[in-house]
Design brief:
heterodimer; A: mainly alpha; Serine Threonine Protein Phosphatase 5, Tetratricopeptide repeat; two-stranded antiparallel ribbon; 2 strands; globular; B: alpha/beta; Rossmann fold; 2 domains; 6-stranded mixed β-sheet; 8 helices
Chain lengths: 215, 333
């Protein structure tokens, strides 16, 4: 079972469409504990990404594609999301540089590197009420289910489910990073927007790559 | 939403076009990536000073580009940090061979984007130093927050460092001066209303008619505490007491008192606030020797104010008094 270059393109385009449709929701989450621009920023970034990758439809290097996504996000999203999502994609791209297809292990390695990049850039830890609270459980679930012999489709689903639980788990947390941390206790009771968009990213991967039971 | 704009998505671009048309004697505007640069940049042998941040805080930072203050300002989308390519190109544009200082407000996004710009610029052969401003006392500076925000002291640092750079002082000294200003300035803000980000179309948060928000930042985000509206003298006390206790400011200190409008509060009210402030400081034996009153670091149309106190010495006073010629701040010798 492998993910092709076209599969990765489909994932990126689907994520962009999801961000577009959930733009208001993400903005609302960000208004409660931030400054209300997460949805707008991600939509601007992913629109630019789609325009950029459309011109690379016939290519073969998944690593280069992911790096392009990352660099485009860095130069268009701004805020904290730009550097963090940009780093996520750029680090994923570096690890699978030159590959035309991703095996389950390739995807696990990419997610490992991407999450490590986000941790290094933002210096957040689980419990800080950030995208890390969705990404780390997702990465861990992917590794452990693949290690347990699950199919790629199942592993992707488990990874997305772990991201969802992590995202929901941010609701009671008091933010220790980012703009929400200025609110202190008032940040509790609200779901983190970054964890929400990260869950969306992984859920989209599971839906896009796991839909055809390729084993 | 009632704003004097055309399409919300064009706001920043049109603003920059307006600035370019209005102040060609002072600045040039570069598009894609966006930055505002001093018309005569680069100034040979002078440290270049670059700052930046989201749009929506005007005149900060673009209105402070010109002789005696910033060499370049990088505007992001409204309330959104600018991106590394903006800072990289701005840095190259202001490089006069004496290095470049980045003045960075302590917000997660600003810090990360400036850091990435420094990483990308590593290979450009320009010496860059970055100083982070974190003067807001509303946020507890601890392991459990993103640290204190950079607010009013940023304006004062840009002016004072701008003056030092005009004197052709070396990068290390200008950076040290920036750290000194940051170490001696403290701020706190409050809001009577929220503000509306054009792309969002509605207020970021709702405040009741009889409520105020204490300990706000500059991006329309909620503050630390919401309470019933109080008279100006009580508000001044609530903002100033934590400022005084934090440095701490002591009897006999000389200060620059900066009473800032968040954008929607008129000068009439700022002077009422200043009156209460100077009385409070007089009671504490603190002498105001300089002041700045007006909208300088704003949050779109938010009604409210912030107070910044900067402890002065002869050097800081002299540099504050030095001539400056920008759209937002202008005085002669």
């Amino acid at each position: 079972m492998s993910v092709t270059y076209d599969d990765v393109l489909r994932w990126i385009r689907t994520f962009a469409a999801e961000v577009e449709s959930k733009k208001e929701y993400l903005t609302q989450l960000d208004a409660a504990i931030g400054d209300g621009d997460h949805g707008i920023n991600m939509q601007r970034g992913m629109s630019a990404v789609v325009a950029k990758v459309d011109s690379q439809a016939g290519e073969h290097d998944i690593g280069a594609l992911l790096k392009t996504v990352g660099m485009t996000l860095v130069s268009t999203v701004g805020g904290a999301g730009g550097p963090l999502y940009g780093t996520l994609f750029m680090q994923m791209g570096t690890v699978v540089s030159g590959k035309g297809e991703l095996s389950p292990d390739d995807w696990a390695a990419a997610l490992d590197a991407g999450v490590a990049g986000v941790e290094a850039r933002g210096k957040a830890e689980p419990g800080d009420k950030t995208m890390i609270d969705a990404l780390v459980p997702a990465r861990d679930a992917l590794r452990s289910t693949l290690g347990g012999g699950a199919t790629f489709a199942d592993a992707l689903r488990e990874s997305a489910a772990a991201a969802e639980r992590g995202m929901q788990g941010t609701v009671p947390l008091v933010a220790r990073k980012g703009r929400a941390s200025y609110l202190g206790e008032r940040s509790a009771g609200h779901q983190d927007p970054g964890a929400t968009s990260s869950h969306l990213l992984l859920e989209t991967a599971a839906a896009t790559w796991g839909d055809s039971e390729k084993g | 939403m009632k704003k004097l704009i055309n399409k919300p998505e064009d706001v920043v671009t049109e603003e920059l076009q307006g600035i370019a048309a209005a102040h060609p004697d002072l600045v040039k505007v570069h598009f894609n990536p966006h930055f505002i640069v001093r018309a005569d940049a680069p100034v040979e042998g002078k440290v270049g000073i670059v700052s930046g941040g989201g749009s929506g805080h005007e005149p900060m930072h673009g209105g402070f580009v010109g002789p005696g203050m910033l060499d370049a300002a990088c505007p992001g989308e409204v309330f959104t940090s600018p991106t590394p390519d903006q800072m990289l190109d701005a840095t190259k544009a202001v490089n006069g061979g004496a290095g470049v200082l980045h003045i960075v407000k302590n917000y997660t996004g600003d810090v990360m984007n400036f850091e990435m710009a420094a990483e990308l610029g590593g290979g450009e052969g320009i010496e860059v130093e970055a100083v982070v401003i974190d003067d807001d006392v509303a946020v507890q500076d601890s392991l459990y927050t993103a640290g204190r925000r950079g607010v009013g002291t940023t304006v004062l640092a840009e002016k004072i460092c701008g003056a030092a750079a005009e004197e052709k002082r070396p990068l290390s000294e200008v950076a040290e001066l920036c750290r000194k200003v940051n170490a001696n300035g403290r701020s706190m803000g409050m809001a009577l209303t929220s503000c509306i980000v054009p792309a969002a179309g509605k207020p970021t948060f709702d405040l009741g008619d009889d409520e105020m928000e204490i300990g706000i930042g500059i991006h329309g985000e909620p503050g630390r505490e919401r309470m019933k509206l109080a008279p100006a003298s009580e508000i001044v006390d609530r903002l100033t007491t934590p400022i005084l206790e934090d440095l701490p400011f002591e009897e006999g200190d000389e200060v620059l008192a900066f009473v800032n409008s968040m954008g929607g509060t008129p000068l009439l009210e700022l002077y009422v606030v200043y009156n209460d402030l100077q009385r409070l400081l007089e009671e504490r034996g603190i002498k105001i020797t300089r002041n700045l009153i007006g909208p300088y670091i704003t949050s779109l149309e938010m009604a409210g104010c912030s107070i910044t106190l900067l402890k002065l010495d002869d050097e800081l006073t002299r540099l504050w008094d030095a001539p400056v010629k920008t759209a937002g701040l202008r005085w002669a010798a």
